[in-house]
Amino acid sequence: MDAATLSETFGATFTLVGGGWSETANVWTKTVGNKNYTFTEANGILTMTLFGYSLWAATNAPTGTAADDFDGDGVANGVEYVLGGTSATKDASKLPQISTSGGNAIFTFIRDQASIDGITTLSIETGSDLATWPSSYLVPVGAVASNPGVTVLKNTPVSGKDTVTLREPMIPSGRKFARLKMVP
């Protein structure tokens, strides 16, 4: 709305409907999903800005879903977001790695801290075959450790990145598969 060319007349009161709005100094804000809405009383302008996966996707994967692979590099858009990839690079080298040590499967990846947006959930699912994923481990935002479970090392290997590791016993089947699941 352009207040300079506005020809309508409005009353002295203003009402926002739908709940969830907060106000500071005549500026109203509300967050819905990955969208921030701001209404400024002084000029009557309502703006919407994206954040989190939606902001990343607007630049890197403007069509499709988090499960799609916009740039064709073999990495799903949502996983690429979590790993700090872009549509300008082939990001298969950023995929999680799995190894074994002392009878444990060790699943490790580097998370881009920009993907910690308050909306996106990240989990590691494991199983002894590729058909079922009976175990699921939520990846925490902060540095947390459990055994078996997920360890997060903040700002490692560099500032703005986290090293996330899951250690899980290989028993009873002696084999283990793992996958990273992201929900925007």
Annotate the secondary structure layout.
Layout: E1 22-24, E2 27-32, E3 35-40, E4 45-50, H1 52-60, H2 77-83, E5 97-101, E6 104-112, E7 121-127, E8 135-138, E9 149-153, E10 161-169, E11 177-183
Antiparallel strand pairs: 1-2, 2-3, 3-4, 5-6, 6-10, 7-8, 7-11, 9-10
Can you summarize this structure?
The protein contains two helices and eleven strands. It is mostly beta strands and 184 residues long.
CATH topology of the largest domain: Immunoglobulin-like
Query: What's the quaternary structure here?
Result: single chain
Encode the helix/strand succession as letters.
EEEEHHEEEEEEE
Approximately what portion of the residues adopt beta-strand conformation? 35-45%
Radius of gyration: 22 Å
Span of the ends, CA to CA: 31 Å
Strand order of the largest sheet: 1-2-3-4
- Secondary structure tally, helices: 2
CATH superfamily of the largest domain: Immunoglobulins
* Domain tally: 2
Structural class: mainly beta
Give the total of beta strands: 11
Biggest sheet overview:
4 strands, antiparallel
Shape estimate: elongated
- What's the architecture of the largest domain in CATH terms? Sandwich
Q: Which spans of ≥5 residues are poorly predicted at pLDDT below 50?
A: none
Helical residue percent band? under 10%
| Average pLDDT figure | 88
